Model the fold of this input.
Amino acid sequence: MDNVLEKTGMKKSFGKSLLYTLPMFLITFMFMTGGKPNFSDPASALAVLTVFLLVNVLYFFMHYTGKTDRYRAVLFIIFALSLSYTLIHNMLEVRKSMSFSQADILECKIPFCHLVIPMMILPAVFTKSIIFPGSIIGGFANISSMVVLWLIATIVLGRGFCSWGCFYGGWDDGFSRIRKKPVIKKISELWRWMPFAVLIMVALTSALALMPTYCSWICPFKAVTEFEQVTSVESATKAGIFLSLFGGLVIALPVMTRKRTQCSFLCPMGAVNTLANKITPFTVKIDKNSCNECFKCVEVCPLYALTPADIKAGKVSLFCSKCGKCVDACPKKAINYGIRGIPAGTMKNFSRNLFLFVSFLFMAIFSAGSIISTFHGLLKLIF
Ligand code: SF4
Ligand code: SF4
Done:
């Protein structure tokens, strides 16, 4: 721990870190318990207490050690795993299967996910129809609340959503950390434009076919959530595509490259969030006066968001997801969280603290429900 403390310029004393954690402590207590802890079901109370402590301990250590990514990643990965667990568990309980039938589609009984949003815009504007088979006002798939939450998170975090809010990003983030050194060292950064091509393709095909084509044909996360019943050559082909993309882009390539390849090369929501990076108040900034161009940050960036040319130009690219890995790795502390309009190298502590508070709170709000439900389910299995 001492080594960690020595290496970072953003660490705080124990007391100061506790003080910074206090607002998070109070807000998470309120939304996890409603202000009134309920001890009538011990398993449920223990699940809430565990998640409440987990969230606040991680946030405390972000301040105490000055490191961001390693504590962010713990919650982010648990979030992705627990969401899949909760979804699969619900599917099995309600339908006794992970697959859904045509009747489920007609009855709008499909869980809604934020990746559908870019596909819904054109059909909603031009045909006034919501092409996803979910309910707008409630039930299994509450589209309206999801769209509002996503919109707020996107405007505030931009592509930071991909490292702090996304339900699935923790999958390839987790696999990208398995090996210490990459087997594949170089993939052209031109591939990072691929999500824009996917976005244009799914927006147009969804508008023409009046169906969410990304969900129906491409989404790798169908492999760990829900998918159409295999009853024909078409549905078997879809299942094959989901499994291949999950195996290739979410498991194999992240392990071999140490990069988040599904998020970097496929996800259309990543493209939307990249554009949103143009308007968000928070950025990652390079202080050219401190940087010695060692390119350590380029090496560790999991999203191909930094190139040597970006470093020489003193500007992080729009692809940045604000994960903090480069901030943690920089030996000169030359790369840091910043606020638009404030020059790099000034108000570093204030900018980092404000960004951490906002982004971590988003992640805590998005993830708490599914993590509590997963712990609760596991506790009931054990006791
Ligand atoms: S790790 Fe730091 S010093 Fe090295 S190139 Fe990146 S910003 Fe500059
Ligand atoms: S530039 Fe830094 S903060 Fe942005 S995605 Fe890369 S490692 Fe994460």
